[in-house]
């Protein structure tokens, strides 16, 4: 199972109470399930509005179960935000 780093930004960071943390997950769907289990409540609600980058590439509308994660990869959790 690949080890990845999940990085939280803005409202996701506030809800998680941490900037980043490691997870073992083969797909984005598995990583997000683990995040929701570790952080029930506000972060789980914030995730519903987020977009995601995997190793710098936007996930877009792809099914999260189809997005494979690589060993040492990074998942960026990006809530919607105003400005620039």
Helices and strands, with pairings:
Layout lengths: L2 E6 L1 H7 L3 E5 L3 H11 L3 H6 L3 E4 L2 E2 L15 E5 L6
Parallel strand pairs: 1-5
Antiparallel strand pairs: 1-2, 3-4, 3-5
Describe the structure.
It is built from 3 helices and 5 strands. The termini are far apart. Helices cover 29% and strands 26% of the residues. Strand 3 and strand 4 form a beta hairpin.
Q: Which key terms come to mind for this protein?
A:
5-stranded mixed β-sheet, alpha+beta, about 80 residues, 3 helices, about 30% helix
Outline:
InterPro entries: Beta-grasp_dom_sf, Mopterin_synth/thiamin_S_b, ThiS/MoaD-like. This is MoaD/ThiS family protein. With 84 residues, the protein is of the alpha+beta class.
Largest pleated sheet: 5 strands, mixed
Give, in spatial order, the strands making up the sheet with the most strands. 2-1-5-3-4
Q: Total number of β-strand segments?
A: 5
Overall pLDDT metric:
95
Work out the helicity level: 25-40%
């Amino acid at each position: 199972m690949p080890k990845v780093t999940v990085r939280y930004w803005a409202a996701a960071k506030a809800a998680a109470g941490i900037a980043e943390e490691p997870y073992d997950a083969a797909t984005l769907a598995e990583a997000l399930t683990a995040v929701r289990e570790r952080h029930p409540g506000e972060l789980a609600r914030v995730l519903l509005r987020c977009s995601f980058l995997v190793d710098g590439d936007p996930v877009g509308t792809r099914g999260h179960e189809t997005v494979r994660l690589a060993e040492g990869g990074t998942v960026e959790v990006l809530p919607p935000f105003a400005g620039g």
